[in-house]
Amino acid sequence: MISMKRLVTRAVILLTVIAAGYYVIILGGPIKQSISIGSCHEEYTYFITDNTFQDWNTAGHATDNFMEVGNAYRFVGKCLCQEPHSETTRKNLINILKSDKMIYLSYRRIKQLYRVGTDSIKIACDHSKEIFERLAID
Question: Phi-psi bin for 27: left (phi > 0), alpha (psi -120 to 50), beta?
């Protein structure tokens, strides 16, 4: 016969495994993270399983980590354009422009359109609405 202590222990372990499975598989294991550069700060949700269950459940209409992180960088980039341009702000903005492929492609398209050869913060900030536009799922 199984003792009551052993039965309770097994029940607690089973409930813990079920709760952890629900958190990771169904919810995706959301973890709040943030990006802070200068006085600009943005929080976003990072999913351990890249939100695969929600993406499967909604037929591809759920955000993934790529979109969450990219949108956070877009917000910080737009915020940096509103700050006074110092050398530190310039370096941080160039790093943000090169950190995400979609942001960089938008920036490169604007540079080619205006025939700018070097990295220009003025062009990036003048066209920040196009370059740092948040991605969304329709």
Answer: alpha
Q: Output the CA torsion 105→44→61→47 (10° steps).
A: 110
- pTM, to two decimals: 0.78
| Structure token digits, residue 10 | 């097994």
d(CA 110, CA 118): 12
Contact assessment for residue 45 and residue 68, using Cβ atoms and an 8 Å cutoff: yes
Per DSSP, the three-state class of 79 is helix
Torsion, Cα 123 127 130 134, to 10 degrees, reads 90
Q: What is the pLDDT of residues 1-52, one digit of tens each?
A: 678 899 999 999 999 999 998 888 887 888 899 999 988 999 998 888 877 7
Tokens coding 1: 């016969």
